[in-house]
Amino acid sequence: MTKAVTDETFETDVLKSSAPVLVDFWAEWCGPCRSIAPSLEDLAKEYEGKLEVVKVNIDENPMTPTNFGVRGIPTLIIFKDGKPAATQVGAAPKSVLKAWIEKSL
């Protein structure tokens, strides 16, 4: 359900999206990133049609995280109308992530 986004596709896939987009900034070597991945997959299914969930690998795409001030991972940012609307840093249980999404939409 989640889609990989690159530095090259970020503008089209996220900033120009008509729907809100949750961006997961992550890396292969990041344990907490891997621990929240199943929750993000579940939430992507739950919010299908209301919220798009995408992933940006910070090692392969260094420009985008820098542009948005990502200093630690996992960092989740919800973009609405091409602008960051809410940020969550660090791993959290699915219930906390869901509450954060609900509050942010």
Q: Uncertain spans, ≥5 residues at pLDDT below 50?
A: none
Counting DSSP E segments of at least 2 residues, the number of strands comes to 5
Q: What about the largest sheet?
A: 5 strands, mixed
Give the terminus-to-terminus CA distance.
19 Å
Question: Rg to the nearest angstrom?
Answer: 12 Å
CATH fourth-tier homologous superfamily: Glutaredoxin
Question: Which sequence of SSEs, written as H and E, runs from N to C?
Answer: EHEHEHEEH
Please report which band the strand proportion falls in: under 5%, 5-15%, 15-25%, 25-35%, 35-45% or over 45%: 25-35%
CATH architecture: 3-Layer(aba) Sandwich
- Would you state the CATH class? Alpha Beta
CATH fold node name: Glutaredoxin
Shape: globular
Structural class: alpha/beta
Total helical elements: 4
Helix content, binned percent: 25-40%
Spatial sequence of strands, sheet with the most strands: 1-3-2-4-5
Look at the structure and give the mean pLDDT: 97
Concise description?
The protein is an alpha/beta fold and 105 residues long. It contains four helices and five strands. The chain has a five-stranded mixed beta sheet with strand order 1-3-2-4-5, with helices on one face.
